[in-house]
């Protein structure tokens, strides 16, 4: 029963990844259909992320009031509404309407499932969980590439919605599996601290800045990878450019798959340090001034592989770093800061690339990679200092 429940949680994370990479893959085509500047993708992405922030901040309260299984069901349903809405959109402004359920569906399910897994399972399970997010995020750009080749971009959103419906149906069938852990979950939820109290904990604000920085880089890749190839490489067709939008997700999935096997041995902190070194190596490869697209494609794949373990490891460390009492609020706050990074920084990059040129993307990415590691190391120092005072 327990392994079946893990399988359902993994499936729910595939559903979380499916909508995230569609806009980036479809945008070079959508932009021409709607007759808007390339930077306008940022406004849609920003709206989706803003709704996700609201949803993530509501996460701790929702976890206290409802069980994780119901948060998962409602959230997947909301993303289906958003995806279907996007598929029927004929004008740019209509995208904003459906960006609301699109975003609301992501935040609370992300926060609640991360909290559930961080408190009940090992670092290995957490990495595999986020690996399945990457699987979902790889499937959808390739679906979009197929849609662009054989139909229209609208069909890419519609086909993704059909997959989500299938996942929702399986999640509804699996509701009885959650009963075994429900009492323990309720007990954990009742003991949870609030957001205001949690923000005062040493290291919490620093880890939020680190998470913001990580997601700023990750989300910029999500949204602008296809456009980077379109703007810097010659002789690539529409379908190949859209499919290359999945490179970063392929890397994320590979990084998390490898981490799933080694994370219990290495520990979260070492895994993050190794990941950031690999990420920077990938970004340097992207920055090489070569005409062909093979090295650049390899760079995005390597950067994604390095990024892979960072997000799940930071989430998994929450109970160990700050205590189980604070973990629900910490994870909710981390999700909110993550989506703040996802909301604003790809849009800021959109403006930058319009003014300077999209070639600036590797410099932008490397800045956030450094900010991420600096603030994480400061977090560890702060926690160590707090523990030192506690034991003194």
Write a compact overview of the structure shown.
By secondary structure, this protein is an all-alpha fold. It contains 17 helices and no strands.
What's the CATH class label?
Mainly Alpha
Strand fraction equals under 5%
Beta strand count: 0
Structural Rg: 20 Å
> Shape from CA axes?
globular
SS-based class: mainly alpha
Number of helices: 17
User: What characterizes the major β-sheet?
Assistant: none
Q: Whole-Å distance between the termini?
A: 45 Å
Low-confidence stretches: none
Q: CATH fold name, please?
A: Growth Hormone, Chain: A
CATH architecture: Up-down Bundle
Order of helices and strands: HHHHHHHHHHHHHHHHH
Estimate the helix proportion, in percent. over 70%
Assign the CATH superfamily: MFS general substrate transporter like domains
User: How many domains?
Assistant: 1
Please tell me the overall pLDDT: 82
Question: Top keywords for this entry?
Answer:
single chain, Growth Hormone, Chain: A, globular
């Amino acid at each position: 029963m327990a392994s079946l429940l893990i399988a359902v949680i993994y499936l729910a994370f595939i559903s979380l990844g499916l909508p995230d990479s569609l806009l980036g893959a479809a945008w070079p085509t959508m932009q021409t259909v709607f007759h808007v500047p390339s930077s306008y993708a940022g406004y849609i992405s920003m709206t989706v992320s803003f709704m996700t922030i609201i949803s993530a901040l509501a996460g701790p309260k929702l976890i206290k009031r409802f069980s994780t299984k119901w948060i998962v069901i409602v959230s997947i349903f909301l993303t289906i509404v958003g995806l279907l809405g996007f598929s029927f959109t004929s004008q740019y402004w209509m995208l904003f309407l459906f960006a609301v359920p699109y975003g609301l569906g992501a935040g609370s399910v992300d926060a609640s499932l991360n909290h559930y897994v961080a408190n009940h399972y090992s670092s290995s399970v957490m990495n595999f969980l986020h690996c399945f997010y990457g699987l979902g995020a790889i499937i959808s750009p390739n679906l979009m590439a197929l849609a662009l080749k054989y139909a229209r971009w609208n069909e890419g959103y519609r086909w993704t919605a059909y997959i989500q419906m299938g996942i929702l149906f399986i999640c509804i069938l699996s509701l009885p599996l959650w009963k075994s852990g429900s009492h323990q979950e309720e007990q954990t939820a009742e003991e949870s601290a609030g957001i205001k109290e949690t923000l005062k904990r040493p290291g919490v604000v620093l880890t939020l800045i680190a998470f913001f920085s990580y997601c700023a880089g990750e989300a910029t890749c999500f949204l602008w990878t296809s456009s980077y190839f379109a703007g810097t490489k010659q002789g690539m067709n529409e379908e190949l450019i859209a499919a290359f939008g999945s490179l970063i997700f392929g890397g994320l999935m590979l990084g998390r798959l490898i981490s799933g096997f080694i994370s219990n041995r290495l520990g979260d902190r070492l895994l993050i340090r190794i990941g950031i070194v690999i990420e920077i190596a990938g970004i340097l490869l992207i920055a090489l001034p070569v005409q062909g697209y093979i090295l650049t494609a390899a760079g995005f794949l390597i950067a994604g592989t390095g990024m892979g373990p960072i997000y799940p490891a930071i989430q998994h460390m929450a109970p160990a770093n700050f205590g189980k009492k604070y973990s629900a609020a910490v994870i909710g706050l981390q999700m909110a800061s993550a989506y703040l990074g996802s909301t604003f920084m790809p849009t800021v990059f959109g403006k930058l690339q319009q003014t300077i040129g999209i070639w600036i993307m590797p410099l932008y990415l490397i800045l956030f990679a450094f900010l991420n590691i600096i603030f994480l190391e400061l977090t560890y120092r702060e926690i160590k200092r707090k523990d030192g005072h506690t034991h003194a």
